[in-house]
Amino acid sequence: xxxxxxxxxxxxxxxxxxxxxxxxxxxxxxxxxxxxxxxxxxxxxxxxxxxxxxxxxxxxxxxxxxxxxxxxxxxxxxxxxxxxxxxxxxxxxxxxxxxxxxxxxxxxxxxxxxxxxxxxxxxxxxxxxxxxxxxxxxxxxxxxxxxxxxxxxxxxxxxxxxxxxxxxxxxxxxxxxxxxxxxxxxxxxxxxxxxxxxxxxxxxxxxxxxxxxxxxxxxxxxxxxxxxxxxxxxxxxxxxxxxxxxxxxxxxxxxxxxxxxxxxxxxxxxxxxxxxxxxxxxxxxxxxxxxxxxxxxxxxxxxxxxxxxxxxxxxxxxxxxxxxxxxxxxxxxxxxxxxxxxxxxxxxxxxxxxxxxxxxxxxxxxxxxxxxxxxxxxxxxxxxxxxxxxxxxxxxxxxxxxxxxxxxxxxxxxxxxxxxxxxxxxxxxxxxxxxxxxxxxxxxxxxx
Amino acid sequence: xxxxxxxxxxxxxxxxxxxxxxxxxxxxxxxxxxxxxxxxxxxxxxxxxxxxxxxxxxxxxxxxxxxxxxxxxxxxxxxxxxxxxxxxxxxxxxxxxxxxxx
Lengths: 448, 102
Fold this sequence. Notes:
The structure holds two protein chains of two kinds. By secondary structure, chain A is α/β, with parallel strands linked by helices. Chain A has two domains: 7-105 and 309-435, NAD(P)-binding Rossmann-like Domain (Rossmann fold), CATH 3.40.50.720; 109-306, FAD/NAD(P)-binding domain, CATH 3.50.50. Chain A has helices at 16-27, 46-49, 56-59, 62-69, 88-92, 123-130, 155-165, 168-171, 178-185, 207-211, 239-252, 347-350, 358-373, 401-416, 428-435; strands at residues 7-12, 32-38, 74-78, 97-100, 106-107, 120-122, 147-151, 191-195, 219-224, 260-265, 268-274, 281-286, 294-298, 301-304, 308-309, 318-319, 324-325, 327-328, 331-334, 337-344. In chain A, the strands form five sheets. A seven-stranded mixed β-sheet of chain A has the order 3-2-1-4-20-19-18, covered by helices on one side. Chain B is of the alpha+beta class. Chain B has one domain (3-88): Alpha-Beta Plaits, CATH 3.30.70. Chain B is built from four helices and four strands. In chain B, the strands form two sheets. Chain B has a two-stranded antiparallel ribbon with strand order 1-4. Chain B starts with a strand and ends with a helix. Classes of the chains: A alpha/beta, B alpha+beta. Chain A binds chain B through residues 16, 27, 57-61, 63-64, 206, 208, 238-240, 243, 354-361, 364, and chain B through 19-24, 41-48, 53, 57, 60, 83-84.
């Protein structure tokens, strides 16, 4: 819809936090229009590029995002990167407020020797690859070895382990990227270690996702609980932690009858990745009883999944300790003082935690601040339409929501032929071509 | 395998669940909330935020709570969607303390 609202707000990032912020703004009693800018031509952020392909039900949340995109006074601009294609300054000249919902795309490093060896990767790269992220599609993971080690005890580690553990038959009717299905079908991986520093009652696994390992077609889960058989007597475990612990105990008694094994190990702190040119072994320090003891696991692949950071943006204060844009309840701050008109929500506000819906409450909190501040904020000198349509400093091409719907239809049609819910387009050129229409063409090079 | 609000909610109705539901599948009446099984996407985000532990995965329900699967389905169809939090019912905090001490 044409923006004729009293206030204009730009949202940077089309993941869950961005959509929920848009919804809260558009539902408010204030007259607000929202322009959402997304670096890629396609929306949904980590729902498209993070949520595992074998969790299709979770992806139904996109229906809620589509409903928000259809609200009056909402516009989508895909394929525009803020900070390169379009400067923050140019954006601020056109909007009363700018809200960053740009996520946490940088993987935390293990910071151990050997991390740069071939065969050692951030888990997030593998996730983005099997989910068809355009920037990872040419990445080549080598599955010719038999053992993989995953560092971290959160749900991303479970996703990586499960995708490595599943057979082609278990994956072929999902929306996994075609290149990933092909490469994983040839995988020689037989043993998958999921290793963490803490004990089995202190993981960040969701019980429900851990339980899925009991139902794999060709992989037995196994938990090595030596020294961890019982939780500490003074430990308070909430219901979720109790359920996780019970499931791990059941895994400690399981038999090995299938071709693959997924082995959960605890109390191991990474010391080094060893290898001559490529990963051959990983060394750990035992944290459970004898701190001087070391453990080595022979392996060919290492995936680290120990957290993510928001990418710093030039001109925006950054909280180094937390790895997010410095903020107070969603107002971007410098030395504790709010910077008028700049806001943040989602993972770039609070770090990489919670379920999809956690972002809803998070964005509502931020938007409450935006709405309270709007009457006091400076009137922007320019209208956003001055950014569009080519010319000096203008954005020549982008994908609007109708363009995304054409990409979506193309993907669904390509998937139907293979019994998949969709076959994702993985090349930017293909996305822009499928988006078609007058507004959606490949943007100029970033230097433009 | 949707999630289900059980009778533990009845009388508290904190509605923390509503603020974290990504798909607005919570419905409400004067006593408690209900999950629409057609819209629930099984994310489980509501389970840990319930102050009294009233929400369960349907496949984890004890036998004496199984009827709540059907009650959620029926009442969700009969009651309005709740899109934001409500104040808890009077006496909710005392009730919560009693439940947590069991």
